[in-house]
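stage 2 :: seqdesign
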């Protein structure tokens, strides 16, 4: 039986609205970004991978987050196996200024690349020969002989940072199963890295960690998505602020 979250939509949006936010900064356009929530469903309860940011970072110091970052031009050019599910592509291109298939596929590829950069975990499948990559930011995949697989990734949520914040992102949250990790680079996480530690934690327990509000809200969205079967046909929640209030609409 599918879990009905319609009665919780206003609760989650209200929680984000109530969080104290300093909106005293010059306004800016949000940058397109992507985040990956790696999930392990091999045990009795699903676990997610979270990383703790270095305490010296100006942005979210010491917080537990999912790996992610802004889209780069070369993400549009990276080859991949598998295609985006048509429903996933349609949802990724809703409410986008310049929609294109290249932009849609670049978003999950950004999440995969950022995960590799921040955790050393390369998602995809092993290739018989090293893939041809568009530039240095994808070089680790060529060295490891790993090709990203778009069929392994699911679109879970989207959220835009409120206006007049120091950094603004239009972030797409994706998930993939831990079994999609094809290679691991040692030594990426440590005391002098962007992420100082990685932990696997049950979804229900993860919300107790020190994390940004949107991370906790999207964790609940992920939990509901897992219970409902992860299908691409399921609606994707979109969080954004209008007139000083967060809204949750479905794509």
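stage 2 :: out
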């Amino acid at each position: 039986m599918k879990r009905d979250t319609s009665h919780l939509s206003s609760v989650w949006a209200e929680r984000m609205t109530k969080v104290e936010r300093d909106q005293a900064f010059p306004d800016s356009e949000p940058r397109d970004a992507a985040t990956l929530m790696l999930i392990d469903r091999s045990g009795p309860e699903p676990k997610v991978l979270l990383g703790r940011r270095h305490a010296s970072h100006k942005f979210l110091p010491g917080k537990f987050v999912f790996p992610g970052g802004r889209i780069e031009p070369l993400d549009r050019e990276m080859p991949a196996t598998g295609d985006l599910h048509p429903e996933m592509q349609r949802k990724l291109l809703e409410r986008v200024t310049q929609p294109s298939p290249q932009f849609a596929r670049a978003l999950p590829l950004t999440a995969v690349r950022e995960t590799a950069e921040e955790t050393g975990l390369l998602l995809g499948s092993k290739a018989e020969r090293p893939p041809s990559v568009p530039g240095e930011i994808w070089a680790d995949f060529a060295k490891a002989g790993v090709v990203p697989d778009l069929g392994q990734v699911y679109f879970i949520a989207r959220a835009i940072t409120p206006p007049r914040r120091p950094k603004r992102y239009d972030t797409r949250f994706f998930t993939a199963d831990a079994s999609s990790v094809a290679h691991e680079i040692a030594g990426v996480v440590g005391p002098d890295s962007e992420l100082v530690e990685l932990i696997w934690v049950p979804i229900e327990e993860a919300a107790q960690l020190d994390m940004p509000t949107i991370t906790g809200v999207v964790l609940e969205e992920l939990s509901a998505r897992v219970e409902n079967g992860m299908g691409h046909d399921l609606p994707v929640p979109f969080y954004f602020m209008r007139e000083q209030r967060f809204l949750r609409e479905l794509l």
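stage 3 :: structure notes
- The chain has one domain: 6-250.
- Residues 6-250 form a domain with the Nucleoside Triphosphate Pyrophosphohydrolase fold (CATH 3.90.79.10).
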